[in-house]
Amino acid sequence: MTDAPLLSVRGLRTVFDTRAGRVCAVDGVDVEVRRGECLGVVGESGSGKSVTFSSVMGLVRSPGRIEAGEILFDGRDLRRLSGREMRAVRGRDIAMTMQDALTALNPALTVGEQLAEVLEAHDVSLPRSRGARARRIREISAEMLGLVGIPSAESRLRQYPHEFSGGMRQRIMIAIALACRPKLLIADEPTTALDVTIQAQVLELITEIRAKLGMSVVLITHDLGVVAEHCDRVMVMYAGQVVEEGPVADVIVRPKHPYTRGLLGSIPRLALRGQPIRPIEGQVPDLIDLPPQCRFYSRCAERGPDCLRPIAMHDAGPLRRARCVRVEEGGQA
Ligand SMILES: Nc1ncnc2c1ncn2[C@@H]1O[C@H](COP(=O)(O)OP(=O)(O)OP(=O)(O)O)[C@@H](O)[C@H]1O
C-alpha cells in the first residue's frame, strides 16, 4: 500500500470550449507523485502545467472541463467525488499555492481569520468547547506562521495581507496551505514576481517543510535551475503533453527529448538560480488546431520524415520516458 503512488493521473484530457474553438490544454497526461517526493513540472508558458494540477484539484471552471482520465489520490478516484467531498480533499489532503499570493489571499480578512477558516473547515481534531477551540486555533495558527519563518506570530495574526511584503505573503499562503498538514502540496510558480533572494528563501522553506512534515510536493515552474536544486523527479510538458520524465539528475545530464535539450541549452549555467527558460525559437502550436504529427516538429532541429505522425511516450532507460521518435527507434535520442 505504501509503495503505491500518492497521486496517479492517467490519460487526463482537459479542454476549454471557447468562441474560437476547443482548446485542448491537457491532452492525455499521465502523472505519478510518490510519497515524500518532490516532482518538478517544467515547460514554457501555456504548456498545460497549471491546468493539469487545477484538474487534479477539481478547480477547472467553465468553459473548461475534464473530458477524460482517471485521477487517483491515496487510493480514491477524485473524479467520482461529490463537490462536498472534493472540498474536503482540498485543504485537508491536497493544498495548492497559487501564482499570485496577493490575489489568492482574502484582503478583507486578517491572516489569523484566514488560517482559522481553513482549520475550522478541515481540522477534525479541534476541541468541541468554544473557548478551547479558539485557543487551539490560535496556537496552531501561530505555530504555522512560525513554521514559515514569520516572527511575532501572535501579533502578525491580527494583520491583513496588505500589511505584509510580497515574500511574507508567499509565506502566509504556504502557512495557510499547510495548516491542515496536507499529504500533497502543489506549489504553482511560488517565485514569480519575487526577487531572487526571496525566491530562494521561499523554495528553501518548502524543501525544509517537506522534510519536516514528510509530505509530497509538486513544484510548477519555468525555472529548470529550481527543479535541479529542489526536485527528485521532473516532468517536462509541451503543448498539453508530457514529453519527458525521469529523475532530475539523470534528465539534466542526459536529456532524451530535443525540447528538454533546448530548455537546458538555454541555461548555460544551471547552477545559477533564478535563471528563467529562454524561449526556444519558433512558436508553440495552436492548441485549437493541433498538428497530427509530433507537436515539437516545427521547432525541432532533429526532425525527419518519420516524425510526421503522432508520437507516444516510450521507455527511455531506467525510470525514464520520452516522447520522441528517436527514443522509439531505440537510439539515444
Ligand atoms: N479559462 C481558459 N479559457 C481558455 N483557455 C484556457 C483557459 N485557461 C487555460 N487555457 C488554455 O490552456 C493552456 C494551458 O494553460 P496553463 O495555465 O496550464 O499553462 P502553464 O503551462 O501553466 O503556463 P504558465 O507557465 O504561463 O502558467 C493555455 O495556453 C490556454 O490556451
From TrEMBL:
Q: Which species is this UniProt entry from?
A: Halovulum dunhuangense
Q: Which UniProt keywords apply?
A: ATP-binding, Cell inner membrane, Cell membrane, Membrane, Nucleotide-binding, Translocase, Transport
SMART domains for the chain: AAA
* Similarity field: Belongs to the ABC transporter superfamily.
Asked if the Swiss-Prot or TrEMBL record annotates the protein with the keyword Cell inner membrane, the reply is yes
- The record's principal subcellular location, in a coarse class, is membrane
Q: Which SUPFAM superfamilies match?
A: P-loop containing nucleoside triphosphate hydrolases
Q: Quick check: keyword Translocase in the entry? A: yes
What is the protein's given name? ABC transporter ATP-binding protein
Q: Which InterPro entries match?
A: AAA+_ATPase, ABC_Ni/Peptide_Import, ABC_transporter-like_ATP-bd, ABC_transporter-like_CS, Oligopep_ABC_C, P-loop_NTPase
Localization per record: Cell inner membrane
Which molecular function GO terms apply here? ATP binding; ATP hydrolysis activity
Q: Which residues form the ABC transporter domain?
A: 9-264
Q: What is the lineage of its organism?
A: Bacteria, Pseudomonadati, Pseudomonadota, Alphaproteobacteria, Rhodobacterales
**Lipid bilayer topology:** Peripheral membrane protein
Q: Which GO terms describe its cellular component?
A: plasma membrane
GO biological process terms, semicolon-separated: peptide transport; transmembrane transport
